[in-house]
Write a structure and sequence with these properties.
The complex is a heterodimer of chains A (113) and B (112). Chain A is mostly beta strands. Chain A is built from no helices and twelve strands. Chain B starts with a strand and ends with a strand. The chains are: A mainly beta (113), B mainly beta (112).
Chain lengths: 113, 112
């Protein structure tokens, strides 16, 4: 069975500092990888995804994630965060050939001024 | 374009009552999903559908039922509500397995 582990449940950082949110997965087959973001009192929105090709993927608001097959990781990074990045971030995987997305437990990112 | 809409936004049920959570999407998506979100647990898939007339169980289907008679609508039925069903419920839709899932705003359900 596939699983996703987000290693930190909460990450507090100061504004303009860099941040990394960690995500590891386990699967016996290849996977597609996603990061979703949930702003307070809202549904989830897709931030970025890796399907194939370049292992480094970027979002329009400055986040990036790198697929590392050997370490089965898909960590999310941003070089300089803003107050508006305060949200909960979910890593998710779909094994190739499967129909269902499997989510991690979420990481709450809190930005302090 | 409304996207994915869910009703109601909030609901309090007594143990043993039943209710239907409504979900409608206007993007002509074939895939629709129901998730529940509990604090610190991420999202768990309850049921999903790959097209009208086709539904399948997710990770946590017990106590719930779904139907998909049209492309647009995917209602979730709770029979005999229990306190363990207190949660936030999200409906989502997408055009394919690897495509973006678009989420509704959620329904916060409390069972007392």
């Amino acid at each position: 069975a596939q699983s996703v582990t987000q290693l930190d449940s909460q990450v507090p950082v100061f504004e303009e500092a860099p941040v990394e949110l960690r995500c590891n997965y386990s699967s016996s087959v290849s996977v597609y990888l996603f990061w979703y973001v949930q702003y307070p009192n809202q549904g989830l929105q897709l931030l970025l995804k890796y399907l194939s090709g370049s292992t480094l993927v970027e979002s329009i608001n400055g986040f990036e994630a790198e697929f590392n097959k050997s370490q089965t990781s898909f960590h999310l990074r941003k070089p300089s965060v803003h107050i508006s990045d305060t949200a909960e971030y979910f890593c998710a995987v779909i094994p190739v050939g499967a129909q269902k997305l499997v989510f991690g437990q979420g990481t709450r990112l809190t930005i302090n001024p | 374009n409304a996207g994915v809409t869910q009703t109601p936004k909030f609901r309090i049920l007594k143990i043993g009552q039943s209710m239907t959570l409504q979900c409608t999407q206007d993007m002509n998506h074939n895939y629709m999903y129901w998730y529940r979100q509990d604090p610190g647990m991420g999202l768990k898939l309850i049921y999903y559908s790959v097209g009208a007339g086709i539904t399948d169980k997710g990770e946590v289907p017990n106590g719930y039922n779904v139907s998909r008679s049209t492309t647009e609508d995917f209602p979730l039925r709770l029979e005999l509500a229990a306190p363990s069903q207190t949660s936030v419920y999200f409906c989502a839709s997408g055009s394919g397995i690897t495509d973006t899932q678009y989420f509704g705003p959620g329904t916060r359900l409390t069972v007392l």
